[in-house]
What we know:
- By secondary structure, the chain is mainly α.
- Helix content is 61%, strand content 0%.
- The protein has helices at 11-22, 26-33, 37-45, 52-62, 66-69, 83-86, 93-101, 108-129.
- The protein folds into 2 domains: 11-69, lambda repressor-like DNA-binding domains (434 Repressor (Amino-terminal Domain), Orthogonal Bundle), CATH 1.10.260.40; 83-129.
Amino acid sequence: MDEFKGRVEAFAVRLQRAMDMRGMKKAELSRQTGISEQRIGQYVMGSYEAKQSAVYAIAKVLRVGPAWLAGYDVPMEPPVAGKLKKCGQKITSEDLKIALFGTKEVTDGLLEDIMDMAKIHLELWKRKQG
Length: 130
């Protein structure tokens, strides 16, 4: 699978656009994400592609959707938690693939592994809560 399939714009371009839009410098983005300023500079220059965890951290700080930041043809706004639930629409495996990876071309096995990890994380969270 080509990991860049479906992208319409480079991550570096989207990152710079989001930083400009928020008036945020590399130093501030570094401080808020915990990613080194040098690494953020590499992202902006396009010399290094961010890993998924970094994309999510940056997207959260810049208040943009991670799939948009990664370069996919999706809305810039981050998804609203519970939006689909409120309108009564059930989330399918295909929807989840797009939400997590920006493409439907993800193996069902990988999606199952992620769902298993989410269940484990949820169980650990519940134990901490009470």
